[in-house]
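// run 5 | inverse folding | seed 20
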């Protein structure tokens, strides 16, 4: 089921990627956004099917769709078209698996989806395709293909070379921008701290520690690629469970240095400045024990099912001694009834005849 669905989604996404390629050649920005967004949605669904399960793309409110996409076609009760999640939701779910596409690239991809959905507009110069959108689209297709286990050319043919060239051009523009940023930052550092000893500079670390202006997963200290002092990076966090702890790898997606004022605004700029991933601190595995999780869930269900009743009237004695329990299991209630009947000289069997007194696991109010 999953493999057939994935193949179908890949074939469909390739049709829209070809339409996006044609729009690129014809310089029709709006058309590019439409076709690229649909490619992203279809290919993103294929990633979710592969990495999680086809049921993870079903519209959660439509039970027939969940049955259908989880392989229980025979149980579907009517003729229907499976309902699935929309482009925004697809992006959010599949970017979880794409560490380097979080942050600015994900923003550019969301912008394409929003434009297709009519939520965002390209505005003036509508036929100019932003470099960021083009680059993010190309990177998304390549990363999705890797996660699905196919060659990117399966999706990008016949325009793979075009996408690749334009994407490289966008990347080389970013390289030029970053080279300029690095050179400017080195000059600034030299004029500010050139005469200062390294020890003295390091003693200023707390005072010049910059605020990170971007939120990804976590902020961390990180050596500056321009001046070599300690700056600060906003990073995505990848965790792998090993030896009872999570081994953490941090991927910087934004960087700022308080010594030389270097600022790198996204993963592309960070990569162009050769700032690579680094190890974070190990994290203890404190995930829920499956048994605890079940108990918590069960309690929450019971709380939801039991109707609220008025508190018993206040009494003069200590609450714990005088207040009757607000609810009791049917079985407990049956025991109380039996006891009361015995006191009144009635038979135990009378209580057993009451169907509600059998041990159904529901809660009732005893009064
Ligand atoms: Zn610096």
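// decoded
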């Amino acid at each position: 089921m999953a493999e057939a669905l994935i193949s179908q989604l890949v074939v469909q996404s390739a049709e829209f990627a070809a339409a996006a390629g044609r729009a690129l050649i014809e310089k029709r920005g709006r058309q590019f956004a439409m076709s690229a967004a649909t490619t992203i949605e279809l290919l993103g669904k294929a990633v979710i099917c592969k990495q999680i399960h086809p049921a993870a793309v079903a519209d959660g409110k439509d039970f027939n769709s969940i049955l259908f996409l989880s392989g229980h076609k025979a149980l579907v009760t009517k003729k229907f078209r499976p309902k699935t999640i929309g482009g925004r939701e697809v992006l959010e779910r599949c970017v979880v698996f794409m560490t380097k596409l979080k942050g600015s690239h994900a923003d550019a991809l969301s912008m394409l989806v929003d434009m297709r959905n009519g939520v965002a507009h390209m505005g003036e110069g509508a036929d100019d395709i932003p470099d960021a959108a083009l680059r993010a689209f190309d990177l998304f297709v390549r990363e999705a293909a890797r996660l699905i286990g196919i060659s990117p050319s399966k999706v990008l043919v016949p325009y793979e070379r075009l996408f690749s060239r334009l994407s490289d051009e966008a990347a080389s523009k970013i390289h030029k921008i970053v080279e300029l940023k690095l050179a400017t930052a080195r000059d600034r550092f030299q004029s500010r701290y050139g005469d200062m000893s390294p020890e003295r500079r390091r003693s200023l670390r707390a005072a010049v520690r910059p605020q990170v202006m971007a939120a990804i997963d976590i902020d961390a200290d990180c050596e500056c690629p321009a001046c070599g002092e300690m700056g600060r990076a906003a990073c995505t966090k990848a965790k792998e469970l090993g030896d009872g702890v999570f081994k953490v790898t941090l991927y910087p997606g934004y960087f700022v240095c308080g010594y030389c004022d270097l600022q790198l605004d996204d993963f592309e700029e960070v990569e162009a400045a050769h700032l690579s991933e680094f190890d974070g601190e190990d994290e203890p595995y404190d995930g829920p024990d499956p048994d605890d999780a079940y108990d918590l869930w069960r309690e929450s269900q019971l709380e939801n099912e039991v109707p609220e009743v008025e508190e018993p009237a206040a009494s003069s004695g200590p609450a714990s001694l005088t207040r009757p329990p607000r609810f009791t299991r049917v079985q407990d209630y049956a025991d109380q009834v039996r006891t009361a009947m015995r006191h009144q000289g009635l038979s135990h069997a009378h209580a057993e005849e009451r169907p509600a007194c059998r041990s159904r696991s529901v809660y009732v109010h005893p009064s």
